[in-house]
Design a protein that fits this description.
about 180 residues, twelve-stranded parallel sheet, two-stranded antiparallel sheet, 3 helices, globular, signal, Polymer-forming protein
Length: about 180
């Protein structure tokens, strides 16, 4: 019985998370809500996180528990907000759970050696990246997230385009020279 309740709670939480990823603006020609297709990876498996953040992965990756990746992790590829190629270039790593009202209910830690960011406009939201981050693209963002190590940018241009003021970097922020 407990397993059935836990599974039911997980399905409800997953539905709430996916609903929050959808802005509700999808309509068909007659104004009715159309079927929204959201390519997301919601997991607590390290190999699935790595695959989802690869060039062949998803625009959003959400972890549902603390995850440890042995070694480095590369975030690669160009993705679009909600997989809509007419929309903005955007990619997100969600390190949290939320309720149906979009209130953060739990935050998680992704432990890596170094996260290498090769995706433009990559946002880490909530939670913690335990390791270093090396940024090789424009538009890197921390949104209520923490990086326990250093954040190093491959160029001044990449650093100038970053938004770090809503997050915390416990190590140094610098440009690779």
């Amino acid at each position: 019985m407990k397993k059935k309740l836990a599974a039911g709670a997980a399905v409800v939480a997953l539905g709430g998370f996916l609903a929050a990823c959808d802005n509700g603006a999808d309509t068909d020609d007659n104004g009715d809500n159309g079927d929204a297709v959201t390519a997301a990876s919601i997991t607590d498996d390290a190999s699935e996180v790595e695959a989802s953040l690869s060039a062949d992965g998803n625009w959003i990756t959400a972890i549902t528990a603390d995850v440890t990746i042995d070694g480095d992790l590369t975030v690669a590829g160009t993705f679009y907000d909600k997989d809509d190629e007419d929309g903005d270039v955007y990619r997100k790593l969600a390190l949290y759970d939320q309720d149906e009202d979009r209130n953060v209910t739990n935050e998680y830690t992704l432990s890596v050696g170094t996260m290498i960011v090769e995706s433009p406009n990559f946002r880490i939201q909530e939670g913690t990246v335990d390791g270093d981050v090396y940024v090789e693209e424009d538009g890197f963002e921390l949104s209520n997230a923490t990086v326990t190590g250093d954040v190093t940018f491959a160029s001044q241009e990449f650093m100038d385009s970053a938004l770090l003021d809503e997050g915390t970097v416990e190590g140094e922020v610098s440009v690779d020279e």
